[in-house]
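Appendix B. Chain record.
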Amino acid sequence: MRDTTLMQQALGLTPPWTVVRSDFDTAAGRLDVEIDFTPASRFACPNCGAADCPAYDTQRKTWRHLNFFQHQAYLTARVPRVRCETCGIRQVNVPWARPDSGFTLLFEAMVMTLVSAMPVAAVARIVDEHDTRLWRVVHHYVEEGRARLDAAAVSRVAIDETAARRGHDYISLFVDLDQARVLFATEGKDAATVAAFAEDLAAHGGDPAAIAEVCIDMSPAFIKGVAESLPEAAVTFDKFHAVKIVNDAVDEVRREEQKSRPELKKTRYAWLRNETNLSTGQRETIDSLAHSNLKTARAYQIRLTFQAFYQQPSRQDAEAFLKTWYFWATHSRLQPMIDAARTVKRHWDGILRWHDSKIANGLIEGINSLVQAAKAKARGYRSIRNLKAMVYLVAGKLDLRLPA
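Structure tokens predicted for this chain:
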């Protein structure tokens, strides 16, 4: 079998395209495959689809293909421009590559498979290409995948922000709770992000007025944004965020008290962990200090009781429980606990709503962990656009339709 016939079959080319030559340079570690079309061939117009258009002229182009063993492989072809009676002069599309790409479809499919599991910079080193070229590939497939997104059935959403860079710059994530996928990611963490989400949702077949449940933290910006842009949504305040507010108050009591009670030093995590997660040493610490007339010990009991709010059998029981807890916390003479209780009071309905909706941001926190892990492996991204692309890639469940 001649090498051109072998290459023709391996590439799956059909008329009018044919392999006319292949050259292997051992010293350069490179295989070049020359493709041409048969004389007098006619092509479809890439713009209107009209068939039987004659070639007007040609332009020579080269694409990087999958490696030939350990050697780089390239396809080169004369690509015709055709004269269409309707559209004029148009360049045809070749079956092995998409327009304006320097890579074949199979090479891009390999790149997309790799970048789903490792940083783009690492993939660039493996395939010996500049990462900027690979980012163009990533953005193309992510944008195509998002264009196919169907949000018509979305009715329950969680919202949270994640840091784009340490100490500053955030992106807000909007997650479909039923499909466990990121629907939308946008720069910022203000009310405008919710308006941007509502607009994007409508662009993908969804209806902002059909969003019945939203889970958010107690950010005033998100509260305002939901009220303005998702008018029918009932708000559930994330229970982990609510518990964190009370936990932070306990830690504030401890920090202040340890100035006069040195036995509290190095006990922070003992007071903040759940009882079931305490190590043996931490449990011994709690047991030894629980009856020492410490303010921190009283704050700790208030914290444990607040967590029991989420174990109440019904909303009615939960509301009665929360009223009792609120009275206790606000009469504790521990200012951080009083402040935490007042924060709970200001967000009363959304905290109680958990007993109706049973939704929380645990899913979005898991997605946030995936995003942060990808960011850490990549040692950050040069742009917000790149970060958003990776968010969609690792957590968007996009239909990428990669070539096979």
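Further analysis of this model is presented in Appendix C.
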